[in-house]
Structures are given as structure tokens and as C-alpha cells.
Write a structure and sequence with these properties.
The structure is a single chain. By secondary structure, the chain is α/β, with parallel strands linked by helices. It has two domains: 95 residues, Arc Repressor Mutant, subunit A (Orthogonal Bundle); 236 residues, TIM Barrel (Alpha-Beta Barrel), CATH 3.20.20.70. The protein is 42% helix and 22% strand. The strands form five sheets. The chain has a nine-stranded mixed beta sheet, covered by helices on one side. A three-stranded antiparallel beta sheet has the order 13-14-15, with no helix packed on it. Helix 2 packs parallel to helix 3, helix 2 packs across helix 10 and helix 7 packs parallel to helix 9. It is globular and about 55 Å long. It starts with a helix and ends with a strand. The mean pLDDT is 92.
């Protein structure tokens, strides 16, 4: 049923001729994505694999880490040598567990340093047990000014269920250390809909994070992608997520609690203090990714590096495995998708970029969302209502989660696939 809905919705918004979007191997083996001022670096290494995590990862072995770091720096240096390279405004490290390999973070920052603008955002995802005061001060000394802590839960039973190897006390200490280490902002991730999780328990975690002085709370539902152990367990009836009613209560609760504490909604699942800019990674109009499995999107073309760490090490700097050229209509829909994700649609920005009024291209869908009470007109913008932010995220998930599953499944099986259809 979901597949039928995806095809019908895609045909309406984009056109039946474009279905299904299919990534293909580049004909030119030296292909490189267009430059961008937004950079993402993927560090895939983990001590253990969390059962629900869909991202590209590898076990941490010193020899592999050293080889990967060398390949990563080669890829960055190749990029820097280009004539069309741009100043870097945002540099984000994700994983994997980036704080497991701080030496690679340092090397990558140093490699990008000639391109960094004076006020560039340099951000790192951190595992709570790694966020000691000494580790965080080391990151600050490198130039990291933004931090995201993968707290997930403050309940020991739920942490164990998620495969997280720390105790609530360590997570609380990590937030305290982040608050006192001089970061421009720090974000925490919380998961809702974990098997066995109650609304009261989830709200207690939200309250503890607010009391700890966090700058942003990103509260997202537990995803159980088909290609993950949790996804396979879900299909076998061994890993049941919380029911929709409970998840809805949690979503409404975190929105109410954060707003009461002076936060504003900055995406369908993030809440940020009023005087601070949001922590975001690849939710931008364009970015270039470095590392195994990193994605890029610039000038209407999307690309992925090979997911295989060994293939990446041997292939860099030419490590692009798959590319997809978006049509003009797809570029418009992609722009709208991420504006909706960030809860605000700037009509003037759309007309400036695409040369036509937003309503000419998407007037019917915008009016439909307004009729349902999911969207409202506010000056030059459309703004998602609270109801819209909750339900639009669920609708988006039908597309984005399926796409991730298809791409990740294929690319983890084959380092250099010929084609991957996102159906």
C-alpha cells in the first residue's frame, strides 16, 4: 500500500516519467561532485553496532583507521586543488562514532582550514561516554564549535535495548561537560517510540535535558530500517515499536515542553533555543560529502561515494559510486521538501531561485495542506502548524525512509553497483 501511495504521489508532484528515481554508476570514473560551501565528513568507525542504526559503519581497527584517514585526506586535498572550490561555511562530522577517532577529526579540520570562513560552523557528533571534559576541550582546541550528543534515552533498560554502552549518569555528565566547554551550541538526540518506553519516561528525559541547559533537542521516532538488525527483528515480531498513539503523545509532549522552556521548532523534530541557530547537517540546499558512503548534492546532481571502507581506501580521490541528475521539476520538489522539513517555506526565495512563483508550481498541494490545517500563510512564508509538523514528518518518512533503505541495502552489498532504483 505504501509503495502505491509513493508512486501516485511522486507521479503527481514530479511526473510519472521520472519514476522510479534511479542512481547509476558514473560513466567517467574520475567524476567529482560540484563544490559547495557546506561540507559533510563521514567517519564510519564504531566499537559496537547499535541494532537500529542504518548508517554506513565499520568496526574500529587501528590499521583500518590509519588507512581510512590517509584516503580521506587525499580526497580533501584533491577537492582543495580544484579551481572552482568555494569557501566553507559549515563543516560537519557524522558517523559512525566520530569521537572514536579524534585524530582523524583533527586531520580533516586541518586539511579544510585554508577554506574555512572566520565564522564557519564546525560540528561533531559525540558519543556520551566519549564526552569527557578532556575530550571536549580537545575538540574545542581543534576548532570544533558545535556539538551533538547522541543521548537517545536516560533510562538504562532502554539504552541497553538500543545497544548503547553507557549509563544515564554518563549521559548527564556529558551534557554538563558540553555546557561548560565553550561550544557555541550543543544539541542532544532523544528517541521516542522505543519498545517498552512510556510517555512519562520520555518526558522525564526531555525535562532532564532542558534542566541541563541544552541548546537544542532533536526528538525523533525510532526508525527500524529493513536492512538493520532491528528491522529484521521487527519483521519477525521480536522488536515492536511503540504504537502510533503513544508516539503521537510523545511528539506533542516534547513540543509543549520545549516551547514552555523558550525553545522554537526549527525542523519537524528539532527544537532550538530562541537566540541560537539550529544544529543541522545535510538538511541544506547543497553540500559535498567526504568519506565512505558520504552523499553530495549540488547543482542539481546527487551522488554517493562507495560505502565499502576498503574500496574507498583503494579508490580515493575518485570514490563516487552512484550519481543521479535531478530534473528541473525534481530540483524544485527537493527544495520544497527540505523547506517543509525545516517548517518554513520562503516564497520569495523560491521565486529568486527558480524564476517563477511558488504557487504556480505547487499551489494545489499548498492549498490542500492549508485546508487540512497543516500549513498557514504568514507574510512571505508558509509555516507548518504544530499538527502539520507532526503529520508531515510521517508523510515524508514514506519517501525518505524507503529511499534510505533501498540505497543503503544495495550499497552495503556491492561497493560499485551499476544502478539503484528508489521505488
Amino acid at each position: 500500500m505504501a509503495a502505491v501511495f509513493r508512486r501516485l504521489a511522486y507521479s503527481y508532484l514530479i511526473g510519472a516519467a521520472e519514476w522510479p528515481p534511479t542512481f547509476r554508476a558514473p560513466q567517467d570514473q574520475t567524476f567529482r561532485p560540484a563544490p559547495s560551501g557546506n561540507i559533510y565528513v563521514h567517519l564510519p568507525f564504531c566499537e559496537t553496532f547499535c541494532p537500529h542504526c542504518p548508517y554506513n559503519k565499520a568496526h574500529c581497527e587501528s590499521s583500518l583507521v590509519d588507512a581510512y584517514q590517509g584516503a580521506l585526506i587525499r580526497e580533501i586535498e584533491d577537492y582543495r586543488a580544484r579551481q572552482d572550490v568555494l569557501p566553507v561555511h559549515t563543516l560537519y562530522f557524522g558517523g559512525g562514532t566520530p569521537t572514536l577517532t579524534p585524530q582523524t577529526i583533527r586531520a580533516a579540520i586541518d586539511a579544510f582550514r585554508p577554506l574555512l570562513t572566520p565564522n564557519a560552523e564546525v560540528a561533531v557528533e559525540a558519543y556520551p561516554s566519549h564526552a569527557t571534559l578532556a575530550q571536549l576541550k580537545e575538540l574545542r582546541a581543534m576548532g570544533v564549535n558545535r556539538l551533538s550528543l547522541g543521548i537517545e534515552s536516560l533510562n538504562p533498560t532502554l539504552l541497553k535495548r538500543l545497544g548503547r554502552r553507557y549509563y544515564p549518569e554518563e549521559a548527564l555528565s556529558a551534557m554538563e561537560h558540553a555546557k561548560t566547554s565553550g561550544f557555541d551550541m550543543f544539541d542532544v538526540n532523544l528517541i521516542l517510540g522505543i519498545p517498552g518506553q512510556s510517555t512519562e519516561e520520555f518526558c522525564a528525559g526531555v525535562s532532564a535535558c532542558i534542566e541541563a541547559g541544552v541548546d537544542q533537542i532533536s526528538a525523533y521516532p525510532l526508525f527500524t530500517f529493513d536492512h538493520t538488525p532491528a528491522g529484521r527483528a521487527r519483521h519477525a515480531g521480536l522488536f515492536a515499536k511503540a504504537d502510533d498513539f503513544s508516539r503521537l503523545k510523545m511528539q506533542r509532549s516534547v513540543s509543549r515542553m520545549t516551547r514552555a522552556a523558550g525553545f522554537r521548532r526549527t525542523s519537524v523534530w528539532s527544537y532550538t533555543r530562541e537566540d541560537i541557530s539550529a544544529y543541522t547537517t545535510v538538511t541544506r540546499p547543497d553540500y559535498v560529502g567526504f568519506g565512505a558512503g558520504a552523499g553530495s548534492k549540488a547543482e542539481g546532481l546527487a551522488a554517493f561515494n562507495t560505502f565499502s571502507v576498503s574500496a574507498y581506501i583503494n579508490a580515493t580521490p575518485y570514490s563516487t559510486a552512484l550519481i543521479y541528475q535531478l530534473s528541473r521539476r525534481q530540483q524544485k520538489a527537493d527544495w520544497l521538501y527540505w523547506q517543509v522539513y525545516n517548517t518554513r517555506i520562503d516564497r520569495q526565495a523560491y521565486e529568486t531561485q527558480f524564476g517563477v512563483p511558488l504557487e504556480r508550481d505547487f499551489g494545489m498541494i499548498l492549498n490542500f495542506l492549508r485546508m487540512l490545517g497543516l500549513l498557514k500563510r504568514h507574510g512571505v512564508e508558509y509555516v507548518l502548524t504544530e499538527t502539520g509538523a507532526i503529520w508531515v514528518h510521517r508523510i515524508q518518512s514514506l519517501f525518505s525512509l524507503n529511499g534510505i533503505d533501498a540505497m543503503w541495502t544495495a550499497c552495503q552489498k556491492e561497493p560499485w553497483p551499476n544502478a539503484v532504483a528508489i521505488a
